[in-house]
Structure formats: structure tokens, C-alpha cells
Automatic annotation (TrEMBL):
It is a multi-pass membrane protein. This is EamA domain-containing protein. The lineage of its organism: Bacteria, Pseudomonadati, Bacteroidota, Bacteroidia, Bacteroidales. It comes from Parabacteroides distasonis (strain ATCC 8503 / DSM 20701 / CIP 104284 / JCM 5825 / NCTC 11152). It comes from the Bacteria. It holds the Pfam family EamA.
């Protein structure tokens, strides 16, 4: 039976992924007519940076050594800078449904990285799951080059794929840090590094944002921008480290499958996109791969199984003697 802490972790990452999913059609509405991609990306980072540093004034202070600051800088680059930047640029030229389906490949990336970095075993079930997921993602990307549907593009889908891979690196690398520091401490440094790197290149784009230069401000337009900055950046990035404290990175990444369900429903409902049979098949392949990968045994599970087997054999040998 699931304990209370693990249940909290599941609920936290569920909420974060629902917010990320809602962000896809909202950002698609803003890009590029109301806000340029580079401006929206930099505004997300700058806004979250200010919010997390203000929030840090109301929580216990945690000193972070130089070594961990370097690791937080890497997390900022992978989990915020490249992840958000590539995602926004990709979403600018592809559809919300394509973006959300590709995002479900993140658990597969996480499992591969866990095998390389954390020495997690690669079982037959895991291998088959990876192959299924990759087939689904590649199938979706290749569809972008066929037909006359301009809602999707090969370049945009590839950018979304790389964005997901960067996010996967962040989930694996940041796990040890979540056990040492609060989510506010982690995020205030990560978004500070991201803002310092990206803001100098986006100041002009932010200043020239059409939404800020109208005689009569559009409430829907400004509301969408605020949601992206607060609801789809500050809140979910606050929740992710809290979830990582309680459940494994692979389990956290599994919740990405919520994104295409929510994002597809919203995008189709408001007329931004349509969900074809071919996309449904691609999604089914990715979902199947994700399920098999996350159901395969971890290194800890195998070590526990081997330990139990060794103890049982030792007990049998003692009884036979």
C-alpha cells in the first residue's frame, strides 16, 4: 500500500504535468503574433527567478557550496534554459498535440540515462519498451514531412525531442540535490543562472513584444502571458523537486503521459489542432513503451531480489547440513 509521502509525490507531479499540458495550447496562442519565442522564454526565466528569490526570504536559509552551485548550473542549463528555449521554439512551428506526444518519450530518455549514469540494469522488458517508444516518437516526427498540414514541422518536432532529452538529464542529475536542499533553494539558483545566460540576448525582443505596446490592453492576451509565467513556470518548477524528494526520477517522468491527454483535449476543443488516427497509433506506441519501461525492475529491486535469494539459499544449506 502506498505511504503518505509517496502519495504526495504522485499528486505533486500530477499537478505539475497538468499545468505543463495546459501551457502548450496557451503558448501556441501567444506565439508568435503576441509574443516572440525568445521573449517568452526569457520572460519565463526572469519572472520565476524573481519569484523564487522573493519566496526564499520567507523560508530557512540554506548555504550551497561551490561544487553544488556548479551542478545547479548544469541543471539550470538542461532543465530550464535549453529545455524551455528549445520547447518554445519547437512549439512555434509545430502543433500542441505533436509536442505533447513527443514529451511522453521523456521516461524513455530517463531510463537510458539512468542505465548510463546510475548503472540501472537494462532488462528485456525495458529494451522492448524503449524500442516501442522510439518507434512511436520517430513515426510522429516523420509524419511532419507528409501531407499539406502546416500545423506540424520536422524541425519543430526535432526541437521538442531535444528539449525532452534535456529535461531528462535534469531529472536524473538533480535527484541527489533534491535530498539536500529545498525546492525553493534549488530553483532560485537554477533560474538565476538561466536568466543571466538568456536575458542579455532577449531584452530587445521583450521590449518589442506587441502585447506591451497597445493603446488598449487585451485582458485575454495578458492573462495568457501571466499563466505561462506563473502557472506554467513558477508553480510546476516548485512542485517537481518536491515530487523528486518522494518518488524516483523514472516515476516522475512517467507522468508526462498526462500531457498529451490534457493538451490534446484542449487543443482540439478550441480548434488549434486535430487528432488523426496516425497520431493515435504513434501515441499508443509511446504509451506502451513508457508502461513497459517503468514496470521493469530497477537495480535496487534486483539487488533486493538477489539478497533474498542468497539468504534463502544460505538458510537451505544450513538446514541440509
Amino acid at each position: 500500500m502506498m505511504n503518505q509521502e509517496k502519495l504526495k509525490g504522485h499528486l505533486l507531479i500530477l499537478a505539475a504535468n497538468i499545468l505543463f499540458a495546459i501551457n502548450m495550447p496557451v503558448s501556441k496562442y501567444l506565439l508568435p503574433e503576441h509574443v516572440q519565442p525568445e521573449a517568452l522564454t526569457s520572460m519565463r526565466m526572469s519572472f520565476a527567478c524573481v519569484m523564487f528569490w522573493i519566496t526564499s526570504l520567507f523560508v530557512p536559509y540554506e548555504k550551497v557550496p561551490l561544487k553544488d552551485l556548479g551542478l545547479l548550473c548544469l541543471c539550470a542549463l538542461c532543465g530550464v534554459g535549453l529545455n524551455q528555449g528549445l520547447f518554445i521554439w519547437g512549439l512555434n512551428t509545430t502543433s500542441p498535440v505533436d509536442a505533447s506526444i513527443i514529451a511522453t518519450a521523456v521516461p524513455i530518455f530517463v531510463m537510458i540515462l539512468a542505465a548510463l549514469i546510475l548503472k540501472e540494469p537494462i532488462t528485456r522488458m525495458k529494451t522492448f519498451g524503449v524500442l516501442l517508444g522510439i518507434c512511436g516518437a520517430i513515426s510522429l516526427i516523420l509524419q511532419s514531412t507528409q501531407g499539406s498540414n502546416q500545423a506540424s514541422s520536422l524541425g519543430g518536432n526535432l526541437l521538442i525531442t531535444v528539449s525532452g532529452f534535456m529535461y531528462s538529464i535534469y531529472l536524473v542529475v538533480s535527484k541527489p540535490l533534491t535530498l539536500k536542499y529545498s525546492s525553493v533553494t534549488m530553483m532560485k539558483w537554477m533560474f538565476l543562472f538561466s536568466t543571466l545566460i538568456t536575458l542579455p540576448f532577449a531584452i530587445e525582443s521583450i521590449w518589442n513584444t506587441p502585447a506591451f505596446h497597445k493603446e488598449v490592453f487585451d485582458g485575454q492576451e495578458l492573462g495568457a502571458i501571466f499563466f505561462v509565467l506563473f502557472g506554467a513556470t513558477f508553480v510546476p518548477y516548485l512542485l517537481i523537486p518536491l515530487a523528486l524528494k518522494r518518488i524516483r526520477p523514472t516515476t516522475v517522468s512517467m507522468y508526462n503521459y498526462i500531457q498529451p491527454i490534457v493538451a490534446s483535449f484542449i487543443a482540439v476543443f478550441i480548434g488549434q489542432d486535430s487528432f488523426s488516427v496516425t497520431k493515435l497509433v504513434s501515441a499508443a506506441l509511446v504509451f506502451s513503451g513508457v508502461y513497459l519501461v517503468t514496470q521493469s525492475k530497477s537495480r535496487a529491486d534486483l539487488e533486493q531480489q538477489n539478497s533474498q535469494s542468497f539468504s534463502k539459499n544460505a538458510c537451505n544449506m544450513k538446514n541440509n547440513a
